[in-house]
Amino acid sequence: MKTGHSLTQGSVGKVLLRFSLPFFLANLLQALYGAVDLLVVGLYCPAESVAAVSTGTQVTQIITSLLSGLTLGGTVLVAKYTGLGDTQRVERAIGTTLTAFGVFSLVLSVVLGASVPGILQLLQTPAASVEEAWQYVFICCMGTFFLCEYNALSAVLRGYGDSLTPLFFVAVACVCNVVGDLVLVGVFHLGPAGTAFATVFSQGVSMVCAVVYLNSRNFLFRFSWKNLRVDRRLLKELVILGVPVSLQECMVRVSFLYLTSITNSFGVYAASAVGIASKYDVFAMLPATSVSSALTALTAQNLAAGREERAGKFLRWGTEAAFACSLVFFAWAQLAPQTMIGLFSQDPQVIARGVPFFRSCSWDYLAVSFLFCYNGYLNGRERTLFTMANSCSGALLIRVPLLLLLSHGGVRSLALYGLVSPFSSLVMLLVIWVYLVPLHRLRPRAQGRNLSPTNG
């Protein structure tokens, strides 16, 4: 199996496109996968159900954010020993990752399942939507095992150098989810509970397909009970690699949950509008997210080869590409936000509340095209502690206090709440630019050796 390509040779533009495209396609499919629930519920159910799903997905995104950091640890761990040619440790790393995720998922299911009522209360879920939101979140929580293993399998495959096969499994899950939503919601009228069942089922099918496919192709790791063991040293590495990014993602998501809790208190229509906007955030920020992931590896590999100038070119080209793509969504949100909302809900009150929010929050599309790319670049320079500190500070010391100030001041204008995120992103970006001034005067502290993008 091919384990990857050299990123230190060839045209900067071609290498960037070739390496970023698999990330983008996978992220796009996952974004479509997540948006389908809200879209189908908006077509067949009233605004109360839309608010229930939009609130529920905010909770499930916390789980996804938690997993994203941990899966990164699995990817790096497998990639590290694959690059060293240590087949035995690759097998143990895969076994450790899959087993650890399995155990973690079971614990997480119990904790989250018991916490659903309290979480929905903290989010000030509209009374008319509480029951359906509880059903949606509880069912998704009970399927956490499939979500964990589904993501863990994709992570180890990418670490082993295969970025195309995970796309296939994501596509399988996406198709199953769409069909399941249409049948369970459109035909059997199960509402938000139907979309949750479809989500869990699709993740389970994808996980089973991955195991069967890899075993049939004689993948390095043979899926059997005796191979699902934890190597304590490798588990420690997995935690050290994954937890900082996981913490960063969770803190950012918590700050957005606080926004949800505030806007939920404004009623069903405001809650629905903000929930729909959160779906567009994912799509609008896809290019920046994908380029950021690619830049981490591109920067690390080129710095290790002593090609710092080339790493800077990747940053410049990647940022320009992400900005250009984000500009399309920004223009749409400014010129015709009602058409964006109308794809998810035709309720005139949802559209009326959503238009000013879309126009203000869409400024964040432009800000994060820079912010995410610079974070990816800094992660490649082994400055993950800085990016974690900056992101957590932006979320907890800027975004949350501003939201608190607006809510305690009795402000109910969604337009003002929408400006909080772009403002905090801009502040974080300014901090990065200031940080980079002395950094660029220093030689990379790990030139000539392999750089791990998640080390201190």
Structure description:
- It is globular and about 60 Å long.
- Helix 1 (12-44) runs antiparallel to helix 2 (47-83), helix 2 packs parallel to helix 5 (144-159) and helix 14 (363-380) packs parallel to helix 16 (414-439).
- It has 16 helices and no strands.
- The protein has one domain (12-439).
- It is mainly α and 456 residues long.
- The longest helix has 37 residues, at 47-83.
Question: What is the residue-averaged pLDDT?
Answer: 84
* Run of helices and strands: HHHHHHHHHHHHHHHH
Radius of gyration from the alpha-carbon trace, in angstroms: 22 Å
Number of strands: 0
Roughly what percent helix? over 70%
Task: Choose one word for the global shape.
Answer: globular
Helix vs. strand class:
mainly alpha
Distance between the termini: 31 Å
Domains counted in the coordinates: how many?
Answer: 1
The major beta sheet can be summarized as:
none
